[in-house]
Amino acid sequence: MSGNLTVLIVGGYGIFGGRIVELLENESRLTLIVAGRSLQRADAYCKSRRKAVARLVPAAFDRNGDLAAQLASLRADVLVDASGPFQAYGSGQYRVIEACIARGINYLDLADGSDFVDGVRDYDPQARAAGLYVLSGVSSFPVLTAAVVRRLSADMARVDVIRGGIAPSPYAGVGQNVVRAIAGYAGQGISLRRDGKTRTGHPFTEQIRFTIAPPGYLPLRSTMFSLVDVPDLRALAELWPNAKSIWMGAGPVPEVLHHALIALAWLVRMRLLPSLSRLSIFMHFASNRLCWGEHRGGMFVEVEGADETGTLLRRSWHLLAEGNDGPLIPSMAVEALVRKALEGRVPPSGARAAVQDLELTDYEKLFAGRTIYAGIRDDPSDHHPLYSRILGPAWNRLPVEIRDMHDGAASVSGRASVERGRGVMARLVATVFGFPPTAEDISVSVRFEASNSGETWTRTFGDESFSSRQFAGRGRSDGLLCERFGQLTFAMALVSREGRLSLVLRRWSAFGIPLPMWLCPRSASYEAVENGQFRFHVEISHPLIGLIVRYRGWLAP
Questions:
Q1: Beta carbons within 8 Å of 429's beta carbon, 6+ residues apart
Q2: In the predicted model, what is the mean pLDDT of residues 140-161?
Q3: Neighbour-count burial of 107, counting CB atoms closer than 10 A to its CB (0-12 exposed, 13-18 middle, 19+ buried)
Q4: Pick the CATH number of 141-325+363-378 from 3.30.360.10, 2.80.10.50, 1.10.1660.10, 3.40.50.150
């Protein structure tokens, strides 16, 4: 199949269907039939897409109606079911698939229910006989996760553990059908691989914490992920049958709403509630109205295994999406398959979960040009320099002058200018921390004392010195560089961009007690290279007292 293509999108004006239209509407060879139960809503949606290059056609479509007649009139090459919830389709859950095979129409869906996706394989003989592809679960779970696991485990002789999770932006918008699906399975028993055996898990009653931190980018804040019922739990177990444990989670935010969902899921698990289905309307309202925090989302996949020599390996893939690009990712698998079909590269015929029909390179082409950043981290060795451990592969992208400064140098020296704040409180804080006095041109030296647990930096400006301890963060500060001044600890992200290394404050604490960020001092700190010379800039201020200290200059071994 190549050339022009007509794609029928069931649920085309809904959240996921609308995103598929958004991703494909710049392709002139496509006719996109935007279908749903309301022709009026479909027509309004098509008219709203004024910049669409593809031909948009509104249509009424009722999956419970006469499917044969509807499909015959619409004459699509590919049907994409973006409606759902697939877990609630009941006894006739595969009616659309059966009708597509009968009419010779290829089929894709965004199903997120493990039972539904697993059952699609029963139609494999009919799909093969008709020369059609029938692909289920065409979304981040399990298509993207499977592609990532293949990349991460390429040099592994065995895979022991697979875990992953999605952390959507609080502003991403959650469809009612997604919420209905979550409400239906939260707290219920599901099957998953654990300790090498098939066990029973209960979604949203077991959690892990993970920090999504693509190398060199500002990471997401430490996120709590809860177990969810997704096709990966079965599909990945078939692809990697010797894996001992497979776990997939979701990290909805704000976290207070996540905790409320966890509490309700426990009521279901303890059989104090039959399910949360009756609460889905309230859950949908809360998830789409109570939104705060950063408009950023992400995803991670982590694999543990061993190479041919038996050496244990742990490797993780991190994806970060800024703003409105993140919500598009679950629909990108459909985009990739449709664009490949336009070029004549169609999937093999048959009915199955779509876990082997796309590779990570297919996604990476779609990420390019968007504010979507991804990277791989290997489990770092304590023998690597501190900044190298935290930055991962981004370390090698830094200028050599910056790397030399953090790679075994015992001491460096140079010149600096220093400016202190003029207020009484600013001067007091600067004095307590031992920051240098104001000077237009002063000698500066830094002595580094490194160990496996971190580094002690002693900075000397003229005759004045002050010290701090730097170390890799753990727990909620995982992926961050921590710097301790006395009983105050500041956790900073190392952000590498255009040859500059910036230190961005993300957390702080006193005596080990986390403190609110609105009370935190502000910092504008970076390292750069100018004319082959290492340069530094440190500026510390506070919203209530203004500038505390600003010092900048150059250093050399």
A1: 542, 545, 548
A2: 97
A3: buried
A4: 3.30.360.10
What distance in Å separates the CA atoms of residue 6 and residue 29, rounded to the nearest whole number? 9
Angstrom distance (rounded) from CA 294 to CA 221: 9
pLDDT at 432: 87
Closest C-alpha among 39, 54, 47 to residue 7: 54
Can you tell me the distance from the alpha carbon of 403 to that of 135, in angstroms, rounded to the nearest whole number? 47
DSSP E strands in 242-331: the ranges are 245-250, 296-306, 312-322
Q: Which CATH superfamily is domain 386-556 in?
A: Calycin beta-barrel core domain (2.40.128.20)
The percentage of the chain sitting over the pLDDT mark of 90, rounded to a whole number, equals: 88
Average pLDDT value for residue range 180-206: 95
What angle separates helix 232-239 from helix 145-152, to the nearest 10 degrees?
Answer: 30
Q: Which part of the chain has CATH 2.40.128.20? A: 386-556
- Please state whether the peptide bond connecting residue 330 to the residue before it is cis, i.e. omega within 30 degrees of 0: no
CB neighbours of residue 514 within 10 Å:
13
CB 29 within 8 A of CB 342: yes
Domain 5-136: give its CATH code. Answer: 3.40.50.720
Strand 454-461 relative to strand 522-530: parallel, antiparallel, unpaired?
unpaired
- Location of each CATH 3.40.50.720 domain in the chain: 5-136
The amino acid at 6: T
Asked if pLDDT for residue 331 goes beyond 50, the answer is yes
Question: How many angstroms from the chain centroid is the CA of residue 151?
Answer: 17
**What is the dihedral sign for C-alpha 289, 293, 297, 300?**
negative
Which residue type is seen at 7? Answer: V
The DSSP line for 165-213 is: EEE--TTS---HHHHHHHHHHTTS-EEEEETTEEEEE-TTS-EEEE---
Distance CA 198, CA 191 (A): 6
135/304 Cα distance (integer angstroms): 28
pTM of the model as a whole: 0.93
Q: Which positions ≥6 away from 360 have C-beta within 8 Å?
A: 144, 147, 148, 150, 151
373 by Cβ neighbours in 10 Å (0-12 / 13-18 / 19+) ranks as middle
Q: Taking the alpha carbons of 93, 97, 103, 107 in that order, is the dihedral positive or negative?
A: positive
Distance CA 377, CA 152 (A): 10
| pLDDT confidence tier of residue 1, bands split at 50, 70 and 90 | very low
Distance CA 478, CA 482 (A): 9
Q: From the centroid of its chain, how far is CA 149?
A: 15
Q: What does the DSSP 8-state code read for residue 525?
A: E
Whether pLDDT at 452 is above 90: no
CA 537 to chain centre: 31
